[in-house]
Amino acid sequence: MLKKWMAVSAITMLLVSGCSKSETDEDLKDEKSGAPEQAVDANEEGMPSPLTGLQDNREEPRRSFAVMINNHPNARPQSGLDKADIVYEMLAEGEVTRFLAIYESEQPQIVGPVRSARDYYIELAKAYDSIFIAHGNSPEAKKLLDQGYVDSLNGLYYDGTLFERVSFRKAPHNSYITFDHIKEGALEKGYDMEIAPSPHLFLTKEEAGQIDGQQATAVSIEYSTKNPFFNVTYQYDESLEKYKRASNDELTVDNDSGDPVLLSNVFIIETPHQVVDGDGRRDIDLSSGGRGYLLQRGRMSEVNWINKEGRILPVIDGKEQGLVQGKTWINVVPADPGLESSIVIDNATTN
Length: 351
Prior knowledge:
The protein has 8 helices and 25 strands. The chain is an alpha+beta fold.
């Protein structure tokens, strides 16, 4: 099925141990209903988190917030990525990816570095009723933010107050925000903090133990043949029943704690990308649907993806596929060259 093969042994060992074209400078200037029925284990008590399916002892609904996080090599390791319930990874200008990290079940003390908005990230944030956090914006994103398309906090207007510049990194890789400042900004702007996002569809623990598919213990994603800094590798840790992630052979960990990002689901989709201006900004089609791969429990299934009320979801024969309870990472790659050319599988079994 996959035609291309490359060596991933070195990064496999790194992940198991666990323990270009550059961005434009413009960012410094302009820096529900129909929710699926949940499969909850009968012996579990409490309310499951809507975005992880894990049991939660919260006493009231909780608003999610979605943060644009910098993925430039000078911004790594980031803070707070390990606590995100869902992360979307997509290209911005050039061959540089950025993250939209969505938080609901956990509220990290600090998140960043925060980067500027693009319109397609805003569309995804709205699908989760999130408060959108960014520092700067493209012209298309500015139009959406100015018209109140989503509740938002923009570092352009809170630089040095809600958003803080750290001394150990240089701009534009040094803007951070704390959760206390998010709450402060939301209160100042009158945002409702008790709008819980509608839940995803999750598998029971028994169903998760029966997942089938092609063995895929290590999977790499090539975003660029010229710039390896944004290429990704996922390694399945059988002892944890989680995936670890690396960028350019560097394990993705939290800058403050050193804890690795641990994922229950990795969802990789292809969709048309089009450069729309001289600065290299893109239009990414997140509506039409298409092909994808879903990685769960060391296995990979061929699926299709659909946009359902703004969210990117896996389906087979038109039926939505349940997620393993836990955190999810969604990689969006260009349809040209497509999945087969962008993804490499290593079936070596590791523990």
